Amino acid sequence: MSATGQSTAVRITGYGVLSAAGPGGKALYEAVRSGVLPPGEDPARLLDGQPAPPGVRLVPVPDFAPEEYLGRKGLRALSRTTTLAMAAAEMALDSLQESDGSRDVDTGVVLGTSTGSARAFAEFFRETYEAERPYLVSPALFPGLLLNHGASQVAMRHSLTGVNASLAGGPVSALSALRYARTALLTGRAERLLTGAVEELSAHTAWAWHRGGALGDRPAIGEGSAVFVLDTAPEPAAAGSPRVELTACEVAFTPPEEGPNAVAAALARCVENALRAGGARPGAVDVVSAGAAGGPGWGAVETRGLRRALAGHAPDVLRVRDVLGETYSAGGALQLAALLAHWEGGPGAADDAVRRFGLVTSVGHDGSVGAAVLRRPSATG
Asked: How far is Cα 166 from Cα 148, in angstroms, rounded to an integer?
């Protein structure tokens, strides 16, 4: 506690995740551990009859039916981006296992995204050209074009009146959202925040990635959403919840034209700053959930930056992107969910006697970098 009596610890007390591995952290952990995704639906269903980009593997959330999480009412005009975010938020709230009415505290929503729904944008503006009169386009479709549509729908569904923000930071969108949320909580602007990120897969995003040539030698495009419940409550988390502290989160940028060594150095500084702010030594990092962009050489850039920041220490590394494909703005959130699931069910998960630190990193094609430091407390606090 600080001298003013306000908690300086931000805890993750629940989370929900939807990925190509299916719903939940356990499915995600098993997929990352084994490197194999369970069989799912034919991804061509998401392409609306359009051909898939040649040589690109599509890995959607399998058999995603929004009504299973949200009911049937009011879903017709919602984009896949919005329903993925809403479903993950629903799962996060359900994971709290609370019975004392403490859901009613001042709660807000902070979501990372790219542009919102690229498909919704494309379909809306195409209709303005194809309709007999452009102004006859359905007005019900317009709100889905807005960047903050997902966050606002989550808030309206649960009557949440706290901070509501959407951050578009490309590959570091999720870590930017976590940093924003942590600051809001520690400055007293909110008591609890649903925080995470979302990215949808559609023909529009698949072809944009393919045409951009930024997918590397083994191109795969995915989607997903992960939402975490963050608060500053001093009491331990409820039984069965992750019991993890977000001790620091940093994002930075260096112009990619300065070369890969400059980007690696920027990541190293970002990690070093986050570890210092989080009170962790490099040797105390138990696991890294890595998230380099998929283009040629970016994995090596991330490895170089981590090696420098961790002073030769070699923790376990979770490579979520290798399994889920390029999930862009949702990447950092899915990496964090995989880290929590690793701690819940992975090797040594029952050893509460040792404080373990985890690290989530992101490196983007545009030179953006980010790092979040997590700590799982011992059974005694």
From this structure: 5
Closest CA to 301 of 213, 171, 151, 149: 171
The pLDDT tens digits of the residues spanning 61-88 come to 999 999 999 998 888 889 899 999 999 9
Let me know: does 262 contact 305? Beta carbons within 8 Å: no
CATH 3.40.47.10 domain residues, the chain:
10-231, 244-376
Give alpha helix (H) positions in the chain. 25-34, 67-70, 80-94, 118-130, 149-158, 173-186, 203-212, 260-278, 298-309, 321-324, 331-345
What's the CATH fold of domain 10-231? Peroxisomal Thiolase; Chain A, domain 1 (3.40.47)
Q: CA-to-CA distance for 78 and 86, rounded, in angstroms?
A: 10
CA distance 329 to 347: 29
Other CB atoms within a 10 A radius of the CB of residue 70 amount to: 18
Q: Which residues pair with 108 in a beta bridge?
A: 193
CATH 3.40.640.10 for domain 244-376, yes or no, is no
